[in-house]
Design a protein that fits this description.
Elements (H helix, E strand, L loop, with lengths): L4 E8 L4 E3 L11 H12 L3 E5 H7 L16 E5 L20 E5 L13 E5 L6 H14 L4 E4 L3 H9 L5 E6 L9 E2 L15 E9 L2 E8 L2
Parallel strand pairs: 1-7, 1-8, 3-4, 3-7, 4-5, 5-6
Antiparallel strand pairs: 2-9, 8-11, 10-11
Length: about 220
């Protein structure tokens, strides 16, 4: 299919929220869940996130489990308008050529001192489907077979609406945030039940009061 196997990782409350109304999300799941999430990172070739998520959370996007640090995935950044400041963790924790930056913007003079960065220009005229198909195809050509995505509800919604997610890994805690929280997916605007994506459960695990479900798209 000229695309990686795409896994969408979600950490949410019992009622499907990924953050409070003020976008605070640490820590919505427990330490065991977070450790297993790092293990998942070590099992994927690359991890993708968006500028919005990186600006909110300032993540390192690596694997920090003892003994698996060298299995940290390649970092894929979607920063269409180069909003992420140079001092963010994503640009300051790399020790190898492991950052791919996709942007609509001219990048010739952007982060010229970062030797770990590969810059890929994306045509801003592309619609959402063509935008992600371009990126997935480019990643596949670069040898990325398994891609883990950790983003917010905007990108989640686009990917799920286009049925570009092969697997959902969802860590659900026992907390209830309420309707004013940030959902992991926004409106999909389906009109018929037979239009809905269906993800069949393939396995589950419990981490104290958290539960992990791994679900695969039924094609």
């Amino acid at each position: 299919k000229k695309k990686p196997f795409v896994t969408l990782k979600i950490a949410c409350s019992l009622d499907g929220k990924i953050a409070l109304k003020n976008h605070k999300s640490k820590w919505i799941t427990n330490e065991l869940s977070r450790s297993y999430a790092h293990f998942l990172r070590s099992q994927n070739d690359a991890i993708m996130s968006s500028s919005t998520t990186i600006l909110n959370d300032n993540p390192r996007m690596d694997c920090r489990l003892n003994g698996l640090e060298n299995r940290s995935p390649i970092k894929i950044i979607l920063d269409r308008y180069l909003k992420i400041p140079l001092n963010y963790n994503i640009y300051n924790t790399s020790t190898k050529n492991d950052i791919f930056l996709y942007s609509f913007s001219e990048m010739k003079h952007h982060l010229t001192g970062n030797k770990y960065l590969k810059k890929i220009y994306v045509d801003k005229k592309l619609n959402d489907e063509d935008f992600f198909n371009f990126i997935f195809n480019d990643l596949a050509c670069r040898g990325i077979n398994n891609l883990l995505i950790e983003t917010g509800s905007i990108i989640n919604t686009v990917l799920l609406s286009l049925k570009l997610v092969d697997q959902i890994v969802i860590f659900r805690s026992g907390n209830i945030i309420g309707n004013d929280g940030v959902p992991f997916v926004n409106s999909l605007n389906f009109k018929k039940m037979n239009e809905l994506s269906n993800y069949k459960i393939s396995s589950s695990k419990t981490f104290e009061n958290d539960i992990l479900e791994i679900r695969n798209l039924i094609s």
